[in-house]
């Protein structure tokens, strides 16, 4: 890798509110990291992670980390969106159209890929 090649950040955002089923987020993050370490282009990427994200955290973390890829791990509810945490760690629902609008803005800030790893998140 030349000195001119910028290391790209993969930002992992997780949410597992206290009033939802426990997820194995540590295991999932470890698996992502291990897969990256086995990859041919591993030196071009670094992982950053933020746990217990709230909706207000998304723009702050995107601005701070300037990621190439945003990977969300948590709960999803199909067309109704994903589940994040409120200021008390309780579940709040973020609608799919809100996520779409938000990630369109992030695309102009350098985000090339968004992965929503949550139940029914293919919607």
Q: What are the SSEs and their pairings?
A:
Elements: E1 8-14, H1 25-38, E2 45-50, H2 57-65, E3 69-74, E4 82-85, E5 91-94, H3 96-107, E6 113-118
Parallel strand pairs: 1-2, 1-3, 3-6
Antiparallel strand pairs: 4-5
Strand order of the largest sheet: 2-1-3-6
Query: What oligomeric arrangement do these chains adopt?
Result: single chain
Distance between the termini: 37 Å
Give the overall pLDDT as a whole number: 86
**CATH-defined topology:** Rossmann fold
The name of the CATH architecture is 3-Layer(aba) Sandwich
What does this protein look like?
Strand 4 (82-85) and strand 5 (91-94) form a beta hairpin. This protein has helices at 25-38, 57-65, 96-107; strands at residues 8-14, 45-50, 69-74, 82-85, 91-94, 113-118. The strands form 2 sheets. The protein has a 4-stranded parallel beta sheet with strand order 2-1-3-6, sandwiched between helices. A two-stranded antiparallel sheet has the order 4-5. The chain has 123 residues and is of the alpha/beta class.
């Amino acid at each position: 890798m030349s000195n001119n090649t910028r290391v790209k950040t993969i930002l992992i955002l997780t949410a597992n509110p206290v009033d939802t089923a426990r997820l194995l987020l540590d295991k999932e993050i470890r698996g992502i990291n291990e897969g990256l370490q086995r990859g041919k282009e591993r030196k071009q990427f670094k992982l950053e992670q933020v746990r217990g994200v709230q909706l207000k955290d998304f723009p702050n973390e995107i601005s701070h980390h300037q990621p190439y890829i945003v990977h969300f791990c948590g709960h999803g509810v199909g067309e109704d969106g994903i589940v994040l945490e409120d200021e008390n760690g309780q579940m709040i629902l973020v609608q799919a159209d809100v996520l779409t609008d938000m990630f369109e803005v992030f695309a102009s800030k350098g985000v090339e890929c968004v992965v929503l790893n949550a139940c029914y998140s293919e919607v």
